[in-house]
Amino acid sequence: MKLPNPYVIAEIGVNHEGNIDLAKSMIAEIAKAGGHAAKFQTYKANLIAAKDSPAYWDQTKESTNSQYELFQKFDNFTKEDYEILSEECKKHKIDFMSTPFDVECLEWLMPLMSSVKIASADLTNNILIEAVSKYKKPIILSAGAATNEEIIGAIKLIKDNGIQDITILHCMLLYPTPLEKGFLSRINSLKAILSSEGIKFGYSDHIPPSAANNDQIIIARAMGCTVIEKHFTYDKSLQGNDHYHAMDKTDLKEIMHRLHNCDLMISNQCQFNELGIKIQESAILNARRSLYYKNNLKKGMSLDLNSIIAKRPGKGVSPKDYKEFIGKKLSRDVNQEEMLSIDDFD
């Protein structure tokens, strides 16, 4: 798939706050400012997080204590709403994208997109990655909070499922990300480690625009990033959700202008500091997923893929290991919403 270089994704996410007309007006603002894609987030609270899944963001900016509670606020858009938004993007001649957070939405969401973005928190969610890969579309994968080994594993899984068009985005899974913890040095480190994989690289940014006048985005481009992603809002002064680290239409217009000139700059002097992984431990624990039982199951029953679901937090068995449990017999009765344990099997 041939994309503009750099390809700029303005992530509305759920900053529309459930208002379809506001979402449409934000698409228009992105197009007018020169962005190439408007991206949303498609999820249902009960499919993405357990009810006791705790917050891992800055609660002085977003005070909600539970991920489940936060996601419930913004999961009201329907299949028909996303179809409307897709048509709105076509009207303004930009791409429609929406990150899927569960396999249930894929059948109707994937046909609306020419490429698909998988979030950092789902880099180890093999169930979702495999399901997305079946659609044979280019995959953009954020690598926030991921080790080199996990990134290599995700790339292998995607390639094993027949996808060669892969873009890895450097990202810090910190909301917001302080300027000094952006670790853009990792972009070149990943390029060196993955040089033989034939993939592309990009940057997904959570640094508030006021922190450095968006310099970090320009630096990422100078380091060879071909995809740039940043949250987008209609009002940066709003508290809560993803407003507080997002760009607005004025920022986006300035970013597009500076990116246009950025190809005059080249920088290769970078190193990745493994401290970047350590400071994301809370995100690794709470934003990633564990295997949960989808239904009440009786002792002696054999587990199949329809018996389990990957939900936040990541305190239990990782969904990347789900195949180890398929076909195993339960040694006890288990309940829906209960976290799977290795002790549950003979």
Show the helix and strand layout:
Blueprint: E1 7-13, H1 20-33, E2 37-42, H2 45-48, H3 67-73, H4 79-91, E3 95-100, H5 106-109, E4 116-118, H6 126-133, E5 139-142, H7 148-160, E6 166-171, H8 185-193, E7 200-205, H9 215-222, E8 227-231, H10 249-262, H11 275-278, H12 281-287, E9 290-293, E10 308-311
Parallel strand pairs: 1-2, 1-8, 2-3, 4-5, 5-6, 6-7, 7-8
Antiparallel strand pairs: 9-10
Strand order in space, largest sheet? 3-2-1-8-7-6-5-4
Residue runs with pLDDT of under 50 for 5 or more positions: 267-272
Mean pLDDT: 93
Topology-level CATH name of the largest domain: TIM Barrel
Number of strands: 10
- Summed up, the domain count is 2
| Terminal Cα span | 48 Å
CATH class categorisation of the largest domain: Alpha Beta
H and E order: EHEHHHEHEHEHEHEHEHHHEE
CATH superfamily of the largest domain: Aldolase class I
What is the chains' assembly state? single chain
Alpha carbon gyration radius: 20 Å
- Write the CATH architecture name of the largest domain: Alpha-Beta Barrel
Q: Which term fits the overall shape?
A: globular
Q: Into which percentage range does the β-strand content fall? A: 5-15%
Helical content stands at 25-40%
For the sheet with most strands, the description reads: 8 strands, parallel
User: Strand pairing plus helix content: what structural class?
Assistant: alpha/beta
